[in-house]
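Progress report, Aim 2. The chain analyzed during this reporting quarter is listed below.
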Amino acid sequence: MVFFRYAAPVMVLTLSACGQAPQQPQPGPTAVSVVTIREQAATLTTELPGRTAAFETSDVRPQVNGLIQARLFQEGDQVHAGQPLYRIDSAPYAAQVANASAGLRRAQASIASTQAFARRYAELVKINAISRQDYENAVTTADQAMADVAVQKAALRTAQIDLRRTTVSAPISGRIGRSIYTTGALVTAAQADALTTIQRLDPIHVDVTQASADVLKLRQQVLAGQVSAGGNARVRLKLEDGTTYPIEGTLKFADVTVDPTTGSQTIRAVFPNPRGLLLPGMYVRAELIEGTQTQAMLVPQRAVSRDERGNPTVMVVGAGNKAELRSLKTARTVGDNWLVTSGLKSGDRVIVEGGQMLRPGMPVNPSPWNPNAPAKQPAGAPGAPAAQAK
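Predicted structure tokens for the chain:
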């Protein structure tokens, strides 16, 4: 009997405590930031690896034989076309000029006598004082004397050219490299090694390679009217350290053949290089403008995730402000956006922030996305503000 007297109050207290338990509030719609998709014009660019190359290159070689008597430049200097670079021993060539000049004077002196004989024989043959054969021989001798003068003039001109070539001059303007030969070295006109090399570095070439398949795809899009190729031909450049070259270049031409070993096509651009920052052989990345797509759908890259198969997906705000999952097909990146070819239509609201913990069908509270605002942290994530107890 004692057991029942004390058990009843306990049961009443237990039931009373259960009746006072607070009810858990239902979670409200998740706040998300969205961007409304609109068709817009997008400039298509591609970033390709490349190498810089000198605008002009000239190997300086001797054109006569002899000993180098002097070097007339400092290695690494800027030289101009026609500037003397080396002086070769000119004494033998000066002697050849003197010999050719003397031969010319001798040939010119013989003209007077041979022409006088020809005129005299012309009078004598008229009165049959000499034979016709003697007259023709005199005329031939006079003609040979005139031909000898022409030969001696050519010999003198050749000797003078060789004499001028004893001073080796710069064929182009540019930056000169190191000198392979020093004073006292013997050089020949037929040698394979250059004395030095001059390179013109302002402007400078940038040669990049692009896969022929990408070029073919772009041309097909142009023919289909999806991309307009009448755009800008400017090119931007990124250097080896990741910085952007401050001056834009100009696209000059694309090679008309495809390299069969690599399946790529060479594209050449020209960049001003007034400060000499770009040097031949540097590795760079060139950003080329390929064309403009007039009806492009761009989605911020941060809004796109991947499913278990690696396909791109986004969460959109559907009917009744509920989250919907969409599978996409993307063609390429355009800046910080994906170029979407299917899966979205104009007017769709794509969730950019706040969708990390969302599931399809969950209610959301959308607001316009501000790309300059700091990213929102999902509830429960590290660094997110803790919820205050009520």
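The longest helix spans residues 91-126. The mean pLDDT is 83. These observations will guide the mutagenesis work planned for the next reporting period.
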